[in-house]
Amino acid sequence: MNLNNKIDTYEVAVEPFHADFTGRMFLGILGNHLLNAAGRHSQRRGWGIGTLNEEHHTWVLSRLSIEMQEMPRQYEKIQIMTWVESVIRLFTHRNFAILRPDGTPYGYARSIWAMIDTETRKPCDLLTYADGDILRYVVSDEENVCPIDGHGRFRFRDPQLVRTIDTYYSDVDINGHINSIKYIEHILDLLPRERFEQQVLHRFEIAYKTEAYMGDRLSFYLQPTDATQPDSFDIEVRKNEAEVVCQARIAFQ
Amino acid sequence: MNLNNKIDTYEVAVEPFHADFTGRMFLGILGNHLLNAAGRHSQRRGWGIGTLNEEHHTWVLSRLSIEMQEMPRQYEKIQIMTWVESVIRLFTHRNFAILRPDGTPYGYARSIWAMIDTETRKPCDLLTYADGDILRYVVSDEENVCPIDGHGRFRFRDPQLVRTIDTYYSDVDINGHINSIKYIEHILDLLPRERFEQQVLHRFEIAYKTEAYMGDRLSFYLQPTDATQPDSFDIEVRKNEAEVVCQARIAFQ
Questions:
Q1: What is the pTM of this model?
Q2: CA-CA distance, B18 to B32, in Å (whole number)?
Q3: Chain A touched by B10 (CB under 8 Å)
Q4: ipTM of the complex, rounded to two decimals
Q5: What is the pLDDT of residues A35-52, one digit of tens each?
Q6: Which among B193, B57, B54 has a CA at the least distance from the CA of B113?
Q7: Architecture of A8-137 per CATH?
Q8: Axis-axis angle for helices B27-44, B180-188 (nearest 10)
Q9: A32 at B interface, C-beta within 8 A
């Protein structure tokens, strides 16, 4: 089977302002590169956001899980490989490999996307949209493995409110929504300096639940994932003291 | 005169997450690209930060002024041209042109840099460092014009405290300093949504005075530039209610 028309690889370098105080790439910047790779992979196959927008549709990111053996360092070059793992009626699963120039992995990522009608805001049936064209590009996990766990479940028991922030101009994207990457930044900012000095960020998961907008007040609730994992934290973000906007898990090693 | 070995041009595209809610590139992202272009231009000529660090020296950005006729939009490609305009004993002036692919200007920028000894933190004499090698690359304003005003002077009379923020993990760079670009984001975030909806950011100036660190509390003081310019604001950023960290001017049109 020829996978060349199904898998794309994009090269990026870790720019100076994209490295944190330990010299490693910020996770939010990596997330941004993954979403760009997803966008370009879709666009090249005729179902990019630009094309969809003309037909009143768009992609919505539902889940993103990133697991890194090592974070790339300043000036290092990385290859981002991306492919569609599966398509079920309302969702598609897209995977990523984050590789060194020699092909060895820094880590992997998994994501789940829905396509919505921008007028009704309802999800579309991907198996029939454009005659199911997307199915032509599916690469099964047997063909190109993504060896990290799938997206977990969150069970918030009694999380503690740890921070409340207002949102401003720099937080929102072209649609006026708080941008998916900014949530990652705000969530990592909940952790103290020592956590990043003494450990490395091993895995990050986020589930986007609903949109927030410029001016919304975001409250961050945190709990340990469970008693057996002292280095893993679950975070729930709520807007305006009510609706859940997203939920995330950060695991250090 | 051959300017080819003196002027570099780098191409970048406006990525989806780098566009604001009006569809135009964030100024902080543009600033990041300018600093990258400066870094690469220096590096190619043997006085990049990497080389300097080996000899216990580094570049410090002192001033940055950006003036745009138009901000590039999402997916547009831009060319960033950069060159050294002059070298005086303790400072070098570096200019930038931000161009469309057809060579017409989006805008221009000016910057001033000092080189410091990282052990003594004292500025170096650029006319003698590496036998004044940097002088070989000077391109005068007659040879390649940068048609925007130089850096202005700030005169703070009675600015009002408009916001105080704590700084976290995402705010700091590899040296542990609050990163130059994050100040631009935090400063633009002081303006209300309507300002960006109704006008365009025409000119931004910033003067970096001293470093702030992760955990420092930053206070933002704002005043109108003067009574005759209702669309221009001066901002002073102080750390821990005391020292001035930077001063900026934002002019809308």
A1: 0.94
A2: 11
A3: no
A4: 0.94
A5: 999 999 999 988 877 788
A6: B57
A7: Roll (3.10)
A8: 160
A9: yes
